[in-house]
Every structure is written in structure tokens, then in C-alpha cells.
Design brief:
Radius of gyration: 17 Å
Mean pLDDT: 88
Largest sheet: 7 strands, mixed
Helix content: 25-40%
Strand order of the largest sheet: 3-2-1-4-5-9-6
Structural class: alpha/beta
Amino acid sequence: RVEFYRKAINGRVLDAGCGQGDFALHIAAMTNVRQVDGIDLSQTAIKKCIQRAKENRLSNKAKFKTGSITNLPFKDKTFDSIFAFEIVEHIVDTEKMFKEFNRVLKKGGFLGITTVDFNLLKKIIISLFYFETYFDPTTPHIRFFTKNTLRKILEKNGFRLVQYRWDGSYFGIMPKGQVIIAQKFNNI
């Protein structure tokens, strides 16, 4: 994924929903990255990130804290780029999340997202064979995006889709997920 996002990784970067910090720590070593901030709801994950940053001698460039991506603890226009990998489908208030991303991202900054894809063929297969298991209320995915619905929510919140591709596929005919780069064009 780093190659796909390379042009969007620079300056000060936010890894929203950083988990155990794999992406944040990987890009912290890049010369064009000044600082990486990782945020996650899990205190256990953040403790692991901090430990891994120390072990890799990246504590000066990789900072981690516990927090919510719908209420980011950063000042306006702090970041040059934001990455949210496999997280947007788990957020109840996606409007608030995208507004927060817009608020803390500098104008012209990049937003990278990966999420599952909910295309027509997948909808048909799920509705015929897997409806009960896929939409079980205890599953962690509470939002589903198609390329079009993701583009619309991005545009509504001041972003323009710049680059899009499938994130893997089932037999080359149906995407497993979506990988996107959007650019902030408007403050909201």
C-alpha cells in the first residue's frame, strides 16, 4: 500500500485508527515525513505503538495517543496527510469523522482510505447466500461503501477523489476492497 500512497505521504501525517502502528512506524522512517501521529481508541494498542517506536528508535518522529477519530485532539490544519485504513466502515458517525478529517487537514492535503467494497455483484451474492451472517448486528462492520457512495460523502465534506483502485479481487471480477486517495479542496 505504501507505493500507492507514496505521493500523498509527506510532512506531518496522521494515522487515524493506527492499531499497533505498522503503517505509522513504516512511514516514520521516510525522509519526507517530519512527524507521524497515530491515534486509536485502544489504550492497549497505543501502549504497543509507543513501545515499538522506542524499540525502533522512532520516538522522536512517531507520536501516539488514545483518542477518537470523530473528536480529534489536534488543532485545525495540522496535517499534510491523513490515512484511515480499514476503519471508516466501523464508525457510526461518518459525517463527523470526515468533518474532523477536513478540519485538521491543510488545504490541498491528502486523505488515504482503505475500506471494503460493496458492489452490485457482492450485494447479489450476499443477499442470496450470506445475508444473515453478513448483516448480523454483532459484526464490526456498520457502514458499507460503494465507489459512488464513498465519493459522494468525500465531496460533501470538502474532498475530491484523486485516485482509486481495487484492493484485491475475487477471481478478478469483483473487488475485495477499495483503496483511495482524496485531496482536500474546501474547508467546511
